[in-house]
Amino acid sequence: MTEMNAAWELLRANLERHPDKDAYVFAGERIDYRGLERGAARLAALLRDKGVGQGDRVLIVLPDTPAFVFAFLGAMWLGAVAVPVSTALLAEDYAFILADSGAKVLLARPEHEAAKVGGLPATLLCGDDGPTETARSGVELSPSLGDPDRAGFMLYTSGTTGKPKGVPHRHADLLVPARTWGEVLGIVGQDVIFSASKLYFAYGLLAGLILPLSAGATVALYPDKPGAYELFAVIAERRPSVFFGVPTLYGLMIRAFDATARLESLRLCVSAGEALPPVLFEEWKRLTGLELLDGIGSTEACNVFISNRPGRVKAGTSGQVVPGYEVKLVDDAGRPVASGERGHLLVRGGAFARSYWNRPEKTRETMLADGFVRTGDVYVEQDGYYAHQGRSDDMIKAGAHWVSPVRIEDVLLTHPAVAEAAVAGCRVDGLERPCAFVILRAGIAPGPALSGELRRFAKEKLPPYMCPVRFEFPLELPKTPTGKIQRFKLRQI
Amino acid sequence: MDVSSEQLRQVMIEAGVESRVALGLRPDEPLLKQGMDSIDFPAFALAIEERYGVKIEERDSLSLRTLNDFAAYVAARAA
């Protein structure tokens, strides 16, 4: 076994080849690869001052800024485990993740909800460029070398019960995407990359850190949640050659598109996070002349394992299996299905996590002994192309976010008019969205005004993407003889 | 069937869009420029379908940008 440090590996070739090349561009500031190394090492020294050691978790709740990148690479540099988490969660989610991960240090902006959650040994408050305090020693550390299989970073993904689950990845996993999906996309050092998907998502981390640093490219960082018009403005200003987005966003951009859009810098547009409806592919191509490469990956894979290829796109499919991965479609009994038949998607290879954090039961259920991982997606294969058909569980993929119906139902049940609630996916403009089915308490009449009230109620208590787009008021909910709600009977997709 | 901007704003409020957003909408300006987002947009489109009994096709939906666009769409299709 050769000892290594994946954060260092991502930087090393760039430092030898072009230390002065821009790695990140952010709000008029440029950080070259030498600056990136320095930022990561300084952050590592500060973490060490705070008592962080090998294998300790470092929670990162930061927008897409240089601070995020330094924190992620710096934690790994030290041999700790970087744990990036969405900035859009609720206080209760942060409290849960802090406790579940056992993080030793939190990095967050001072005004952010996460910084107000107590119970941590240390919180490092950050501006755009990193923590406001510096290491006492000021020593720039060498990267901590170790077993490639030791944990290097951990991502959180939503679970069916509504509680997020940690997905630990090894140092070695960080280097796999470049030689698999990265080869399919053909990312090169001359590329300038802009990802609308945030670095704290697996897809955003791939697009805005793993793939570009592996290729020695430049990334344009944008910290806010951009609307469609802002995206066009950023593309015109930063002139990326590769753009990463999600279908929901491409839909909004198509609605906002006009002849003044300056997209001439783009050579490649990539989509993942939810299945791309064919109409979005066709309209995007008609308006921009650019292919939209759709693919499917997962947090567990920290990669995309089925992807369309430039010049060989089949609209309405996630594409072909990415080299380095093996895929099979099976029926409910685990037997392979024939080409053209629906089956549960199992994948192995690449950089798959080997377990969930502290969830042995979920690990056994999902990560099988032969190395295959259950994705929960149902697919059909034809001529080597895989088309998404839905989910085999109750999870909903809305706006590229995982949504647990249970979480929404629990909130709706706190409304005084609601006696029972069930949430399932419905399809709007080809994309899946949460839809609520509500049994009202006696004496309460259904109607549009109540729908609006319930939606506003949900909006106040849930992240926006979890808010149901439609409320229906059936007389009863489909249930098993034991009283369990059969959400699959409510799906309209 | 003629549909006024006022009626559409009402449908929007019933779909859960904030009143201050819905009531402040200019009918000829893109909704996405006036505070509507990727979450409110599908809720509004579904509420329109339900209220006026029209089916908004996926491709058509991508060209409905303003309140006036929705009003014209409904006028051309609703009984």
Give the uncertain stretches of chain A in residue-range form: none
CATH class of chain B: Mainly Alpha
Biggest β-sheet: strands ordered side by side in the sheet of chain A: 2-1-11-10-12-13-14-15-16
Helix/strand order of chain B: HHHHH
Number of domain units of chain B? 1
**Largest protein-protein interface:** A-B, 35 and 27 residues
What gross morphology of chain A would you assign? Answer: globular
User: At the fourth CATH level, what is the homologous superfamily of chain B?
Assistant: ACP-like
CA radius of gyration of chain B: 11 Å
Head-to-tail CA distance between termini of chain A: 49 Å
Strands of chain A, count: 25
Q: What portion of residues of chain B is helical? A: 40-55%
Per DSSP E runs of 2 or more residues, the count of β-strands of chain B stands at 0
Q: Mean pLDDT of chain A, nearest integer?
A: 94
Task: Please bin the fraction of helical residues of chain A.
Answer: 25-40%
- Which spans of chain B of ≥5 residues are poorly predicted at pLDDT below 50? none
Kindly report the CATH topology of chain B: Non-ribosomal Peptide Synthetase Peptidyl Carrier Protein, Chain A
| CATH fold descriptor of the largest domain in chain A | Rossmann fold
* Proportion of beta-strand residues of chain A: 25-35%
Characterise this structure.
The complex is a heterodimer of chains A (493) and B (79). With 493 residues, chain A is an alpha/beta fold. Chain A has 13 helices and 25 strands. In chain A, helix 1 (6-17) runs antiparallel to helix 2 (33-49) and helix 9 packs across helix 10. Chain A starts with 5 loop residues before the first helix and ends in a 21-residue tail after the last strand. Chain B is globular and about 30 Å long. With 79 residues, chain B is mainly α. Chain B has one domain (5-77): Orthogonal Bundle (Non-ribosomal Peptide Synthetase Peptidyl Carrier Protein, Chain A), CATH 1.10.1200. Helices cover 54% and strands 0% of the residues of chain B. In chain B, helix 1 (5-14) crosses helix 3. Chain B contains 5 helices and no strands. Chains A and B meet through helix 9, helix 10 and helix 13 of A and helix 1, helix 3 and helix 4 of B.
